[in-house]
What does this fold into?
Amino acid sequence: MDDECIALFKEKGAWYVPTVIAGRSVADSAKKPGYFPPEVAAKALEIGPKIQATLGRAYKAGVKIAFGTDAGVYKHGKNWLEFTYMIEAGMPAMEAIKAATIHAAELIGIGEQVGSIEVGKLADIVAVDGDPLKDAQAFGRVMFVMKDGVVYKQ
It folds into this structure.
């Protein structure tokens, strides 16, 4: 994503869903001999690291960003790492949380139902052990999960 593309995102009000974890995971897999065909490995090694840098530039420029993971290209349960990668790229932790909640809900057109804790919205809540605003590793310590008002993990 070059400067012209960033300007176009802003002009059109388009959302950017970077999925840094997907790029990093594929790049890590490409380092394993024989994991990918040589052409695929070369592309993954080149592009994977650029996604995080692009996120940082887009965020600083004011592009609307929503959280995404492309969860099929890495080990199950690691999607929380996207928060840490967003923070490393220069997003404040609270902005990363908003990208995963309010902004993601807005992007897919369900912001009236989910994305924030408000009267009348679905009670979808996740709580972590620790303060994710001070310790990004806290995102990986999920202690409580509620979906539609039903507690699944306590």
